[in-house]
Amino acid sequence: MSASATAVELAVFEPDRFEQHRRELTGYCYRMLGSSFEAEDAVQETMIRAWRAQDAFEGRSSVRTWLHRVATNVCLDMLRSRKRRALPMGLVPVSTADVADIGPKLHESMWVLPVPDDRVLSDHADPAQVAAQRDSVRLAFLAALQHLPGRQRAVLLLRDVLGWSAAEVAELLDATVASVNSALQRARATLAAHDPGAATQPDDATRRELLAEFMDAFERYDVARITRMLHDDAIQSMPPYALWISGADEIARWMTGPGAGCEGSRVIPVAANGTIAFAQYRRGGAEPWAIQTLWLDGRRIRQIHTFLLPEQLFPLFGVPMSL
Predict the structure, then answer these.
(1) Long-range contacts of range 25-28, CB-CB < 8 Å, 24 or more positions apart?
(2) How far apart are the first and last CA of the chain?
(3) Three-state SS sequence of the chain
(4) Counting Cβ atoms within 10 Å, is residue 248 exposed (0-12), middle (13-18) or buried (19+)?
(5) At what angle do helices 36-53 and 22-33 cross, to 10 degrees?
(6) Over the stretch 257-315, which tens digit does the pLDDT of each residue have?
(7) Which of 134, 185, 241, 285 sits CB 3.0–4.6 Å from 323 for a disulfide?
(8) How high does pLDDT run on average in the chain?
(9) pLDDT digit string, tens, across residues 132-170
(10) Distance (Å, rounded) from C-alpha 92 to C-alpha 16?
(11) Main-chain dihedrals φ then ψ at residue 270, nearest 5 degrees
């Protein structure tokens, strides 16, 4: 199908029948695939397949269920030709701040990538649902999901994230309830082995306060102040490099050593993966540098993921390429 034909077809059906489900589908596909870019492609393909097959839709299930069936098949097709995405912690041993060689940049397709909250999280959830949604787009959770076979991944997401019944999932996958329950049990066991689990998240006011404090400390490059905001065993990763370091003191050594070029940066807040985050510009705002996501545990930072992929991620997050 040509790009122009696709645009015409989407314009016909999206506004009325399917568009209301786009955000939920994007969130589902993002969790399945680990990439916001692949998720957008998957949802686009889902919409096209749904449009082509809408005459065959007999109304025995809801449009939402039908679209998730199509999206699941699209994601499973995509996963067959892709390698597992990861974070650096899942690829290489921990390093130190005085590492002589940080290694080459690895291709974008290697990494679990961040996503803007407004692409995947609902605007109309109650506080408990908000917390659950945020937890389900944690980068560590997404990396753990990558260890699951495609169908197990779909079962776990449909059951534990979207809250579908075993019977509904069985119907969607053309499976039995017993096989769905078995797949869910195996998926949970694998996930537990790879994901440390959710941390204690503060309320929104505290999150905003901590983000403002960290950004101010970062722009001032007050390393001692930043260190005090970290858990002693905090980690930092830097995709597309496989390097990662662990420990507040080691992160401080990195910032005053190999990472000293970040002094003089400017930052602006963004909303990513249900946590506090910001876009970083080096050289006083002239050079787009990274999207940094900060995962909190209580009032201190447990994980920093610094994605040094500005050409891909800054347009996605709607931030300028310079300040």
Answers:
(1) 25/67, 25/68, 25/71, 26/119, 26/120, 27/119, 27/120, 27/121, 27/133, 27/137, 28/68, 28/71, 28/157, 28/161, 28/162
(2) 39
(3) CCHHHHHHHHHHHHHHHHHHHHHHHHHHHHHHHCCHHHHHHHHHHHHHHHHHHHHHCCCCCCHHHHHHHHHHHHHHHHHHCCCCCECHHHCCCCECCCCCCCCCCCCHHHECCCCEHHHHCCCCCCHHHHHHHHHCCCHHHHHHHCCCCHHHHHHHHHHHHCCCCHHHHHHHHCCCHHHHHHHHHHHHHHHHHHCCCCCCCCCHHHHHHHHHHHHHHHHHCCHHHHHHCEEEEEEEECCCCCCEEECHHHHHHHHHCHHHHHCCCEEEEEEECCEEEEEEEEHHHCEEEEEEEEEEECCEEEEEEEECCHHHHHHHHCCCCCC
(4) buried
(5) 130
(6) 999 999 999 999 999 999 999 999 999 999 999 999 999 999 999 999 999 999 999 99
(7) 285
(8) 91
(9) 899 999 999 999 999 999 999 999 999 999 999 999 999
(10) 47
(11) -135, 170
pLDDT in tens, 71-124: 999 999 999 988 899 999 999 999 999 987 899 999 999 999 999 999 999 887
Tokens 């689990």, residue?
A: 197
Place of tokens 């930072």: 301
Write down the residue that tokens 């059951």 correspond to. 159
Single-letter code of the amino acid located at 166: A
Question: In angstroms, how far apart are the furthest CA atoms of the chain?
Answer: 63
Read off the tokens for 190: 């694998």
Task: Count CB neighbours of 57 within 10 A.
Answer: 13
